[in-house]
Amino acid sequence: MWKGNSCGLFSQIHVNDSEWIVPDGQIIIWFKSATARKENGWETLINAFYENVKKSDMPAGHQEPLFDAHCHIGESAPHADEQPSRPGGGRLLCGLGTADWPAVRQAAATWPGTVAAYGVHPWRAAETAAGMRWLADLEAFLTTDARAWAGEIGLDGARTRDADEAVQEKAFRLQLRLAARLDRSVNLHGVTAWDALVRLLDAEYGTAAGEKTFIVHSFSGPFQYINPLADRGAYFSVGPLAWRRGSRVQTERAKRLPLDRLLLESDAFLVPGVDAIADLQKTVAWLAGARSMDRAELAGIIQENAGRLFGYGNG
Ligand SMILES: [Zn+2]
After folding, report:
1. What angle, rounded to 10 degrees, do the helices at 295-310 and 276-290 form?
2. Residue 204 placed within a domain
3. 59 in a structural domain
4. Residue 57: inside a domain
5. How far is the CA of 105 from the centre of ligand 1 (A)?
6. Is 119 within the bounds of a domain?
7. Does the predicted model carry a pTM greater than 0.85?
8. What is the tally of structural domains in the chain?
9. How far is the CA of 219 from the centre of ligand 1 (A)?
10. Are residues 124 and 35 part of one domain?
């Protein structure tokens, strides 16, 4: 059933009438016929795969589950049998605006390990200027899912051509206020507007600041904001943007983020063919290099952080 070559980096598995090829931990599924594709949904095959593969058979470094703390979905409704990325250690699926909330909700209901986040991204804050209906809709999405987060929300000083500062600030503030009222955690987007971001967090969270948790996704700010954000409850999710840029500043930032607040993110749009897990694996390897840590140990710590935040596992 399970065949591997001597170095263990390339293996095949047959499930019913389909064939799996596993080069370096990436799973590619070949269906021998349209009937096989129809009869074996992605989920069935993925479950069969994990049942059949002993952990010890997996290539080293590809065994651990990794939580994707920030990813997105296309605006077409997802189907349960078309989970676009192989299963990892769960994911926070972030909305960008009113248009994708229904698809986020459907994905969270059908894809295992998926937590929904609903919010209006600062790039789309202009859509909040047309009236307050969006805020009522947001509240409805949040209250019908007790696990849901608010996000992706925040401020982007580099994209004021899409929505000016006042519009972004108002949209952010209203969403933060709603999240605080409903006691929901928040997934934050921040670019160059860190003073304003911290000021609004304090204004909306008030004395509860520090008891709240939120994720600052793809933190790109000056180092002096790391501690103030962490003091207010921030976790920091690091993704491919950091290592693709590959600068010394990125490496230095990766070193300075508090270990007990580190998370991984793909920031990927989950559509068929996208392998977000591969990006998480590359990111944890890069982070381990930057912090001079053992890769597997770091992956374990990060997954514990995610477990603590999302309430699963032994974290
Ligand atoms: Zn994003």
Report:
1. 120
2. yes
3. no
4. no
5. 17
6. yes
7. no
8. 2
9. 11
10. no
C-alpha distances (whole Å) from 1 to each of 13, 48, 60, 70, 148 are 6, 12, 20, 35, 40
Q: Is the domain of 41 the same as that of 124?
A: no
Tens digit of each residue's pLDDT (9 = 90 or more) over 176-213: 999 999 999 999 999 999 999 999 999 988 766 667 88
Residue with tokens 């991204």: 121
Structure token digits, residue 53 = 């593969």
In terms of domains, do 86 and 108 share one?
yes
111 and 255 assigned to the same domain = yes
One domain, residues 44 and 107 = no
d(CA 151, CA 189): 8
Residues 19 and 124 in one domain: no
Q: Which residue has the tokens 């010890």?
A: 56
Q: How far is the CA of 93 from the centre of ligand 1 (A)?
A: 9
Using the mean position of ligand 1's atoms as its centre, give its distance from the Cα of residue 268 in Å: 8
- Ligand 1 centroid to Cα of residue 269, in Å, is 9
CA of 53 to the centre of ligand 1 (A): 33
**CATH code at position 292:** 3.20.20.140
Q: Is 92 exposed, middle or buried (0-12, 13-18, 19+ CB in 10 A)?
A: buried
265, 305: one domain: yes
Range of the domain at 268: 65-310
* 237, 280, 294 from 248: Cα distances, Å: 18, 20, 20
Six-digit token pair at 129?
């200027």
- CA–centroid distance, 266 to ligand 1, in Å, is 9
Q: Are residues 273 and 131 in the same domain?
A: yes
Per-residue pLDDT tens digits for 24-71? 344 444 445 555 555 555 445 545 554 444 333 444 445 578 999 999
